[in-house]
Amino acid sequence: GTSVEGHVDPITGKPTIALDLTNCNKIEFPGGMLDDAMIRVEAGITRHTLNDHLRHTGMQFMVDPGADATIGGMVACGASGTTAVKYGTMRENILGVQCVLACEPEQGAVVANCGTRALKSSAGYDLTSLMTGSEGTLGVITHVTVKLHPIPSYVTAAVCCFDDLHSAAEAVMTIRQYGIPLERCELLDTTSVKAFQQYQKTGTTKYHQEHQQRDAKPTLFLEFTGASELAVQEQVKAAEAICSDDLGGSHFEFTSNEEERRELWKARHQLYYATLALRKGTTGAILTDACVPLSKFADLIAATAEHVRELNVVGPCFGHAGDGNFHCILPLVDHEDSEDYLQRVHSINETLIQRTLAAGGTCTGEHGVGSGKMKYL
């Protein structure tokens, strides 16, 4: 595919090369690397494949975008995911990269090894960070050394409903300000919850069955982890007090059951497909990727959801509330959407980006620039 921002779309009138590195999928175990909680992989391996290989070690690679992306692609576009609130983005989880630089033909192939296995270095330019998010403009990433983290011993997932989107977002900011550790923190608006309820592949656990019988309201999906059951319970109680007592949340429910937790996050990762199902005949969608300071998050996501409603466009707003990053999915139907409808869709995207930039944010928190966001740099 072309990725969500058209990263590999051909440039009109220019010779274009697209490289497929999916066969470059080896995992390397140089001596002592696992003891140092790191591993070196070829760029084409996917995160699911990597974590399957690591499961017996008790460690995992924790960056988790919705797609089963390749590690090299995640580096190239500076990806992140639902766990960024705790572990950071791809940028914080890379120790080094090997890449073939973009050079003139007469120079031949120039291979650059960026970074070291040390946890810190002040030796010159941070070339690893420079290559992260470069999207193929500086070279082709061939190998990556990534950080690993222990698989959490105790995990609890929770959900809480709110009467309005602003209150849900305020709850997240309060939880963060109080320093309550979060593994994941996702916010869904009313339209997202409706899509979640209607999509037949969302889940079959008791929670999903009960949730489908309720009126759709803005909802937080939370996950807490710790080294002891007591520590996790204290985190859950503190979050519940903020959500229910301080911000008026309702139906605060939590579970440590592994199947129910997996179903919850499976539903969150399938929200894109659930949204497409809201419009019959959907052939694609415009997907926004705003990221703002946490202090601006509540106002911006609420204003964006209201703008979508005002323009009578199908488009849920949801995102990684713990780090101020959210998306709108705006489904399109070829040969059916009027020119007026398309203009309204593009107006939502343009207005959101301008509001984001004015708030000190960025037009792309994790999807990258591609051809879709170049004009905003």
From TrEMBL:
PROSITE patterns, sorted: FAD_PCMH
InterPro entries per record: FAD-bd_oxidored_4_C, FAD-bd_PCMH, FAD-bd_PCMH-like_sf, FAD-bd_PCMH_sub2, FAD-linked_Oxase-like_C, Oxid_FAD_bind_N
Transmembrane annotation, as ranges: none
Location of the FAD-binding PCMH-type domain: 1-151
Compartment(s) where it occurs, according to its Swiss-Prot or TrEMBL record: Mitochondrion
The entry's keywords: FAD, Flavoprotein, Mitochondrion, Oxidoreductase, Transit peptide
Pfam family, one: FAD_binding_4
Enzyme class: oxidoreductase
Statement: the UniProt record of this protein carries the keyword Oxidoreductase: yes
EC number(s) given by UniProt: 1.1.2.4
Any single GO CC term annotated in Swiss-Prot or TrEMBL for this entry: mitochondrion
A GO molecular function held by the record: D-lactate dehydrogenase (cytochrome) activity
GO BP terms: lactate catabolic process
Superkingdom of source: Eukaryota
Named cofactor requirement(s): FAD
Protein family according to the UniProt entry: Belongs to the FAD-binding oxidoreductase/transferase type 4 family.
Protein name as annotated: D-lactate dehydrogenase (cytochrome)
Organism expressing this protein natively: Attheya septentrionalis
Top-level taxonomy: Eukaryota, Sar, Stramenopiles, Ochrophyta, Bacillariophyta
